[in-house]
Predict the structure.
Amino acid sequence: MIIVTKPEATEEQLQHLLDRIKEAGLKAEVSRGAQRTVVGVIGAEDVIREMPLAAIPGVESVTPVLKPYKLVAREFRGQTGVVKIGDVAVGGKEVVIMSGPCSVESRAQIVGIGREIAKAGARILRGGAFKPRTSPYSFQGLGVDGLKLLAEARAETGLPIITEVMDPRDLESIEQYADCLQVGARNMQNFSLLKEVGRSKLPVMLKRGMSATIKDLLMSAEYILSEGNFNVLLCERGIRTFETATRNTLDLNAVPVLQAETHLPVVVDPTHGIGLREHVTSMALAAVACGADAIMCEVHDSPENAKSDGEQALLPHEFEDLVQRVKKVAEAVGRTV
């Protein structure tokens, strides 16, 4: 249920409304605007229906949310929200570029790449310390040592860092070093993990599962928000289809659909979406053109020696070219980089 207060509603009336909601055993999420306050009510639907919410002083309108996802629905805020990663805002006019290697491999590697991408125009550094791999024999990441190296790279470059969390048992360690948590495609429906990151104070980027529908993605995000963490980004990173010419099929349809359905900012990962270095830039440009709030691209200084996903990582000079071209597309659609 979405409750909108009158422009002249007082703080006392708002508090009375919140008290009534709490007394009924329901949860209230408050979003304050310049003129009105929006209150999202979550709980047992039969209890909500029986409450005379429209009769409470200061209430202008009461609208039921019929979608199964309540907190992520666009109706809850009416516009795209802004999520801050460190001091970088995602969801505003600026298209934010996140970049870095698939895996943290050494201090020289992550610091060196961090310097290169910062110089080119990246705003956020990505790097995996814990890596989910299809084969149990593949490189699994450096773990906590990788987190420490990411923190060193942040100190050297000033870029906030985003890194993946795979296991709730690792969350406490990762929170000591990271600025944003990433829930990968393979864990999109790991509901225990979603609940845990929902209790974190760090923002979360939730990647779409390789066989997940848009509704599946939104319902997974609902798990995070229902635990109190509203600082969530949704990431389209390609889905599995019958096509075999590319690693995945980058579903750019999802960008405008998600922006119509939810207030959460939308990130596009063209690197995993297509999986072919020579086409990553084209898909990044397309992502910006269709309205992505941020893009995430992998960069490696020596792809042939990368311990994971070297075939899809851009070289630093290719990333620099991508940023320059993205700036032009962003300007054409009324945004900045």
Summary: The two ends are 36 Å apart (CA to CA). DSSP finds eleven helices and 14 strands in the chain. The mean pLDDT is 92. Residues 83-332 form a domain with the TIM Barrel fold (CATH 3.20.20.70).
